[in-house]
Design a protein that fits this description.
Blueprint (H helix, E strand, L loop, with lengths): L1 H5 L4 H12 L10 H6 L1 E6 L5 E5 H19 L5 H23 L6 H28 L9
Antiparallel strand pairs: 1-2
Helix pairs in contact: 4-6, 5-6
């Protein structure tokens, strides 16, 4: 159970994006990934009468935001396993950055925003851990106030 706590959950939407792109003609080299991801999957008729076309890109981003929220909640724990989670999140960010820069199928706004979410998870995790560690240090009188 503790190893699951170290797993960066944002790897799930990144993995789903990778699997979707892998099924496209041309795979990771597909220049049409943005078009495929933006095709409407279904349409929701709004109360205003306007149709709202929902694409796979929209669903991936919405799911990623929910997962980012969960990751931010996880980062508030001050257990040692959180450091492993932050390190794995940093590795995930590096993988996302390399994919975004080098593979044509990942040069989309959707994947860019997912990469930004992973970066925010990394930054928030380290910042929250540092702030929590500073609060845990108990200075005596006259020792660095």
């Amino acid at each position: 159970m503790q190893m699951f706590a170290a797993f960066p959950l944002l790897a799930i939407p990144v993995l789903i994006y990778n699997l979707v792109v892998l099924t496209l003609p041309g795979g990771f080299g597909s220049p049409d990934a943005a078009l495929s991801l933006s095709e409407p999957l279904f349409t929701v008729n709004m109360t205003s009468g306007s149709p709202w076309p929902v694409s796979l890109s929209d669903l991936l981003l919405a799911g990623s935001l929910v997962v980012l929220f969960i990751e931010l909640l996880k980062s508030t724990t001050s257990r040692r396993i959180a450091i492993i989670n932050h390190s794995l999140s940093m590795l995930l960010f590096i993988v996302c950055l390399v994919e975004f820069l080098l593979a044509p199928a990942f040069a989309t706004s959707t994947f860019f925003l997912m990469t930004v979410m992973v970066l925010l998870d990394v930054l928030a995790g380290f910042i929250v851990t540092i702030v929590a560690a500073r609060r845990d240090i108990d200075f005596g009188p006259g020792e660095g106030g």
